[in-house]
Amino acid sequence: MINTPLEFERPLFELEKRIEDLREFSLKKGIDLSDEIAVLEKKSDALRKDIFGNLTPWQRVMIARHPKRPTTLEYIRLIFDEFIELHGDRSFRDDKAIIGGIADLGGHPVTVIGTQKGRDTKENIARSFGMPHPEGYRKALRLMKQAEKFKRPIISFVDVVGAYPGVEAEERGQGVAIAHNIAEMSKLSTTVIVVITGEGGSGGALAIGVGDKLIMLENAYFSVISPEGCAAILWKDGSRAQEATEMLKLTASDLKAKGLIDEILPEPQGAAHKDSDAMAKIIRESIIKGIDELSGIPTRRLIERRYARLRRIGEFSVRELPPGDLPMAASGNEDAKARADAFDLEGGTDGN
Question: Rounded CA gap, 211 and 306, in Å?
């Protein structure tokens, strides 16, 4: 039973509560109400299919943020046979918003990293509500470099609204840490599989989201900015987050259509928090399949594929201007012309 239903789930929640009350009444009074309960259960199944089969992008964002949605640590416990957590960035401190370590997956060692939210106020404060500091990203990169050294596949779990926005994080180089991670992950000489399990917002997600295979749960989202952040920038009004969600095209189906992710994992009826065991089993099978598919690719080719994947992100076009319309700085400037020609040679004019 969901104790904290989302607004669009409320009719289903009330129907399920009615079924539960009838069961308790039947047991307490010794009255057979199985026929009545069966009718209500049939209605409940139909309503659940209708609700979760027609979700809007904003409703998917709400599900991705559901307080009962499985966390990275819960998935690690359910997916891997053994896990040894490693701590610290060897420079400042251990950031509890990012966890990582060595795990066993069907007899094969892998390195696992991921963002971690709390389950209550105390844990959320300790983990900065799952928003990493620079030292968290440096810890993640340290573990990824260790995995590269010992040729262990890397599994990255993403569930974060964004990197920690505080002054102290900026003082310690938040932007640099995020950019450095993205650059370094693009050239790691080992397999990297990214699993977006819930929220995938801003640099907080991008800093651990570069991989050879990107897997996304159907009710997760992945974007360069959170809906609220986008609304605040575009309209100076965070309350227009629902409108921003429609524009950002951040759902799994949108991203799959654009070729930005490789696989969408179906969630149990009612979303991942309704059956975390079943969801973990689906993720485990997908990870194992991904490792098997990528294991035969030579290292050089693996890096080239990953880099090419990054280069394909985004769409743009280039239009040649008549000589008279060229900017003054570029007009008659051979160096500028050489750079433009080099850009064309790199494929800039074909939209890639």
Answer: 7
Give the right CATH number for 63-311 from 3.40.50.720, 2.60.120.280, 2.30.29.30, 3.90.226.10.
3.90.226.10
b/e map of 303-335 (b: 16 or more CB within 10 Å)?
beebeebeeeeeeeeeeeeeeeebeeeeeeeee
CA–CA separation, 190 and 145 (whole Å): 9
Predicted pLDDT of residue 351:
43
The contacts of residue 251 (CB under 8 Å, 6+ apart) are 57, 60, 221
Contact 41, 16 (CB under 8 A): no
Running DSSP on this structure, what letter comes out for residue 166? S
Q: Rounded to whole angstroms, how far apart are CA atoms 255 and 28?
A: 51
- The C-alpha atoms of residue 38 and residue 32 are separated, in whole angstroms, by 12
- Residues 217 and 198 sit within 8 Å (Cβ to Cβ): yes
| Long-range contacts at 222-229 (CB < 8 A, ≥ 24 apart) | 222/158, 222/196, 222/250, 222/252, 222/255, 222/260, 222/261, 223/248, 223/250, 225/162, 225/201, 226/161, 226/162, 226/199, 226/201, 226/202, 227/58, 227/61, 229/162, 229/201, 229/202
198 closest CA partner among 139, 250, 247, 135: 250
Q: For 195-226, how does the pLDDT look when each residue is reduced to its tens digit (9 = 90+)?
A: 999 999 888 999 999 999 999 999 999 999 98
Best CA proximity match to 135, nearest among 108, 110, 100, 106: 100
Closest CA to 209 of 152, 262, 158: 158
160: its two tokens? 């974060």
Task: State the DSSP code for 85.
Answer: E
Name the residue type at position 185. Answer: M
* Whole-number pLDDT of residue 257: 92
| pLDDT score, position 275 | 93
**pLDDT at position 324:** 64
Would you tell me how many other CB atoms lie within 10 Å of the CB of residue 197? 26
Please identify every stretch of the chain with a pLDDT value under 70, giving residue numbers as ranges.
1-4, 324-352
pTM reported for the whole predicted model: 0.82
Length of the chain: 352
The residue written with tokens 């960035």 in the block is 89
